User: Fold these one by one.
Assistant:
Number 1:
Amino acid sequence: MKNIIGKVISQGLDTLIEEGLLSKEAKDSVHIERARDRQHGDFASNIAMVLAKQAKMAPCAIAEKLLAAMPSHASITEVNIAGPGFINFKLATQTQSAIIDTVRQAGEEYGKSKVGAGEKVMLEFVSSNPTGPLHVGHGRGAAYGDALRRLLNACGYEAHAEYYVNDAGRQMHILAISVYVRYLEAAGQPASLPANGYKGAYVSDLGAALYTNEGDDLLLELATLFADLPEDEEASIDALISRVQTGLGEKKYGLVFDAGLNALVEDIRQDLSEFGVEFETWYSERSLVDKGMISAAVEVLKSNGKLYEQAGAWWFKSTDYGDEKDRVVLRANGAHTYFAADIAYHLDKRQRGYDKLINIWGADHHGYIPRVKAAFSAMGEDAERLHVLWVQFAVLYRGEEKVSMSTRGGDFVTLRQLREEVGNDAARYFYVMRKPEQHMDFDLELAKSQSADNPVYYVQYAHARVCSVYRQLEEKGLQPGVDADYSLLGEQQELDLMMQLARYPEVVEKAARDYAPHQVANYLRELATAFHAYYNAHPFISSEENLRNARLALIDAVRVVIACGLNTLGVSAPEAM
RNA sequence: GCCCCGGUAGCUCAGCUGGAUAGAGCAGCCGCCUCCUAAGCGGCAGGUCGGACGUUCGAAUCGUCUCCGGGGCGCCA
């Protein structure tokens, strides 16, 4: 429809250009949008106002000349000039109603496009440290990342989801030590968890399970283990880690370490899977180390002249790329930093053939973005290929009270708890209905007690209502007709619905381009509103067969689009509620 | 101190590649089930788009400054 109008305007401009009123560049400025207000028609163009300056004419005067120069078209029933110089177009009903068949024929393919042209996209998200179960903050990243993947795939990209498992850092050793202390307790030993160890109940469960499996094999002399630990909390736990490591030896320590790691990764995987979020790959940080990829990456940077040595450490010149300060990649003690691993990881993503890399990080990591982009460039990659998006935290409230969230302290609401309370659909919709960079107040009391007010039900209800109408039809022994006369659909609500249906592919494309699934959620609410209004205003199962068939076809198209949209968000479209 | 994100109706938020009277949900008030699910619909009320200046025919939208809220600035991950 837009194309038709564009063509008409373009032809009109050609005439004016020939007459010397406008220059050839005028045609580059043609912009057509859907009219905001019904009264303005269906589409509008601001071309006359844009060209006013260049032509040294009043917008309305240009509009009038253009109007006279534009050829008529069967699909356009009305053209007029309004406001400061908008040209409004009204389309023929039969042109608009064609969308009904378009939608129904496309089915679940409706709205999909090929704009991505098969570009391989790596979407990395959640990637929470496997030191505890996912909490509601991670849920937002999961819902957002997965919706984005679905959106990109709908637009012809080949998007894969990856979870980067941080299984190589100090935090994992702290988890191991926490599990070990709980193991000792399970063995009846009077051990005590360091102040900054992981305190969640799941750690006790892991310790107890470890005792069940290994018995007394992993016991160490308590007196020497806990004697004379440094006063500083961090130093203390580091000392404890190294004592347990040497005391147990590599193999036994590995048992303890893996007991925590494997159980938690599996727990996270299952949690996400139940949430409808599946990852193509789970990428281990340790595997980067084991394959020597970190040293390889460091060597590349060294040979590119991007590293220098100072105070025994190797620094990356990220300031050359606009970062605030240079960053350490190899510490004085020889160990690589997390940053070094990340450099190798991003290089590996490219080497695995991904054209575009999208990372979704929590807001607490945003200061980290410049150095990663810097390193990416320094490796000879195009920084434009790397997009780092970040989601703001969901600040949790229980009524008026803010809920503190600390994984170490074990005081947090898990994603699983949230899902059980409000259900997957409500949780997912709630998460993605806000744009990611918006701070989000997540009131648990509200989500739990008033879950029926969640907008997801409003949209799902529209879908269920259409299904219900078709069930009613069947009960009355009627069949939806094959031939429907759409010219009977002239009611305002019917035209509104057709317009909404036609808009869906544009919404999907824009949402994918903006990395903004919330735009789909907003659209669905608008479509559902239009449907509910229609439902209340007009009976569908009317006695007049032609009208009935036309209306049934229209609402079936609505059902199809709602299902498409909900699916894009990872939310189900129930046939009954 | 520097950097990033937010500041739009009582509350939670859309709108932001400039465009016509600034939108939705919730909360409030008034109506609507002999009729396809009332998890619904119709109506009323509610706004200095944080503030100032600037750019423009036109600014919630762009620029500069400023105020408020949140976050980030490790040889942590």
Number 2:
Amino acid sequence: MTPRRRDELLAAARELFLRKGYAATSIADIAAAAGASKAAVFYHFKTKESIAAELLESPFTAVSRLIERAEEQRLSPAQILTDYIDGAAETGAVFLAFASDPSTADLIPQYDADAACRRIIELLAGPAATPADRVRARAAFAVAQTVVPTLQEHAGLLDDATRQEIRAAALRALGTGGGS
Amino acid sequence: MTPRRRDELLAAARELFLRKGYAATSIADIAAAAGASKAAVFYHFKTKESIAAELLESPFTAVSRLIERAEEQRLSPAQILTDYIDGAAETGAVFLAFASDPSTADLIPQYDADAACRRIIELLAGPAATPADRVRARAAFAVAQTVVPTLQEHAGLLDDATRQEIRAAALRALGTGGGS
DNA sequence: GTCTATAAGGGGATAGAC
DNA sequence: GTCTATCCCCTTATAGAC
């Protein structure tokens, strides 16, 4: 009932997609990293794409929900950044890694990480944003993205102090007090 | 004497590497984008790698020289960030794009963009850096990297005001006055 | 469920005509 | 210099034995 192998393959795929990118990772790479054969991969997953889709599903819906809440409840930039950073830290930065991997553009149309990022930046910039506002919003979002390399250096774990430090830097980059 | 075709191919390759990433861009893509055949690409360039190497050479040496100067003359974080952003804006952000494309890791050992980025972050963090210092240095560097999407939105041109805005956001993220 | 073997296609790269 | 045609390997994906 518990297909352990499947999880090992999924974990191997995640690690490789994060380190080498989606396009540069082959099914053979994934199989070898999990100590299995290529055919085993295709027994557990229909296509290479579907592996990416499975890895991305939960992180992507988390970000989507954040965007919805931000729009409906008019969350402040500080709240958006905090939620985004916490979510990224918890889901192991898969969303960010895929969003910044150009070879995954248009891979899974339902999970358009790039569009989600652009929307978040718009929300950070505010309703009547000037070009300068957008530059600052992009800067703040870029700081939030540093959870990826930070996670990699901290062996997949982000302590609270580090998370706060990233959040503070993002807010400073945004250049506001963080209020509504 | 002036092989125009070569420059067109180089320009097409740059555009595609930036948009889709190195691994996801095929020789056929490059040839089609320049209105040529695959064989034409291999007449002008020995390998696909060599195209990347040629695109990366000038931006990489610019960054290398910045690192050398920063080490020898003990440049301040503000000076390093300013130079880096200006250099990135001038070289069309090729360096940054390759540095953030995971599929180019170890492509050209001489041009290790990732190592260069880590070195710059160390220099920004300072000699006796705490973990928090490193987080802030990474944040500032991440802000500098936003020249990539910003250039893309501004059709390859960064006006002085925008450049200053990015620079200011990076310095705020770093959390210092920008002094020595 | 996992394997070996293989099909089908795309990738980088070459040969040779023009 | 540029093309068409081709080579060969690697990639995704499938078939079928165990």
